[in-house]
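Many introductory courses stop at the sequence. We go one step further.
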Amino acid sequence: MKENTMEFYYGTKLIHAEPQEKDGNAGYKVIYSDNYVSWCPEEAFESAYRKSGELNFGHALEALKSGKKIARSGWNGKSMWLNLQTPDENSKMSLPYIYMFTACKNQVPWLASQTDVLANDWCIVE
């Protein structure tokens, strides 16, 4: 008997999308970062994608690592967000770290709480 060689994969990608019918079927027009446009049936789309503001920490972290700023919708300071600092030759730190831009407009190193890690209200800040 042939052994199953299929492996698990988990994908995360940032897209733009809007509801769109195709041949009478509900779905979404999807635009990828390379401007490739496709259509996805509603059920498949809604099981694979989450709207900004409804992201879990894993989705938000992937966005952060790809250069996006992130924040929680539930944070009191609406002007607060996180960004990834990647050290360069002028940096005092030698490893990347996450910093928070606070409501007082300060930049401080940030550590996630358990509440932050388990939250589903993360969003991408434009």
